[in-house]
Amino acid sequence: MNALVERIYNASPVVMQNALLSAYGGYMRAMRFSGAHRAILQELMQSQYATSHELKAIQQNRLVSLIRHAYATVPFYREAFKKRGLTPDNIRSAEDLLKLPVVTKGDVRADPERFLSSAFPRKTLKSINTSGTTGTPLRLWFTRKAIQANYAFFARTLSWAGVGAADRSATFAGRVFIPPGQIGPPYWRHNLFNNNLLMSSYHISEATAPLYFKKLKEFAPVFIFSYPSSIFALAQYGGSYAQFCQVRPRAIVTSSETLLEHQRVAIEGVFGCRVFDQYASAEMVVFAAQCEQGALHLFPEFGITEILNGDRASKVGEPGELICTGFLNWAMPLIRYEIGDAGIWSEEVCSCGRNFPSLKAVVGRMDDAIITPEGRQVGRLDPIFKGMSGIKETQIVQEALDRLTVKMVKGKGYQEKMGQEVVDQLRKRIGEAIKIELIYVDHIERSSTGKFRSVVSCVRNRQRRDQSPGS
Q1: Burial annotation 383-414 (CB, 10 A radius, 16+ → b, else e)
Q2: What is the pLDDT of residue 449?
Q3: CA-to-CA distance for 411 and 391, rounded, in angstroms?
Q4: Which of 3, 26, 145, 279 is at 20 to 30 A from 461, Cα to Cα?
């Protein structure tokens, strides 16, 4: 929301907020599910049972077309090809991609204009801001067809879970739609146009859990779409409030964070249905989802995924960096893009009948949650940093229940008001009881494995140690 719309929304009664969210939901649905969406979905429902040879041919044809387009219309790739003495004819297969450089988020952030195709007028493109899993803002542009194709893949994954995109649903995500001045319930809003109940991820606690369960039972969603941390936080209270927890969706679909096995067990136990996990990226370079048999399949029609250990391909069972080439977005094509997560190939052959490659695991997206004094667990905080291009990196560290620090590395174009905006956005999610200190640093340390954690909870870590056997 822009500032004016946000003020109007926050000052409106709940019924008007529902209407405003519904109107926006109608706009987004039209953009996502109109145009080429239906035809692409029909094609995907057929190609999911293609032979390995047919899938390889689909990949090769799409790669060749993408490479020619990027060479002809995208400055970064034209320069990269010429620097290496290459032409599009030199890149005709997944193996040939090794001739091209790996593109990092830093490359795109430093000069996004060099990655934009001259084939599309800027006014026809949709722009989004994403902070990704590193707390580092990134601006991206997409064609409407790319968005419609992306949601066609999403619709196919929902069909694996036995649900449809138009079915009644409840969503737990990173959006802030509860005004900061609101003290009590309701902690949800109704998107009437999409038959969707938006439930706040930032207000789940032992005290509010019965209200969430009661509303979910009343709404009776066919499926729930959620961050793992949000639906798990609610599931943890299912045993205590069994009289309220009689919510029985057909499926729960999780995304945007690593789903841990103990979380899956708890969620499935409380809600009495299967959890289907997804792995995707805002950059539209990779998409994977769990099938009916539980395998996490990568979609070869979506792009090409490499898993690298240094300069070589990772062996089956060996972790490596995910390097992704997406086929969908020709407005801002990303070829051999380092997504920032690690993955492990699976050697198991899935019995679902699809000849898609599978991942044993995606390693990453394991940020801690912030624990508030009243017991709420607030996870997935990276939406706070969307649109703030002057921030290079950020990390939120909770030292105590009532105290946390925001470490920030200034980037090019940083303005002092950005720091206060981060604090304000964080305050909307965690409330007033926690003291927030903003400090500027030159560098944010990585873990012993070189990974970046955008949220670190010393409180959560102490609780784990206190609850561990022998402590």
Answers
A1: bbbbbbbebbbbbbbbeeeeebbbbbbbbeeb
A2: 43
A3: 5
A4: 279
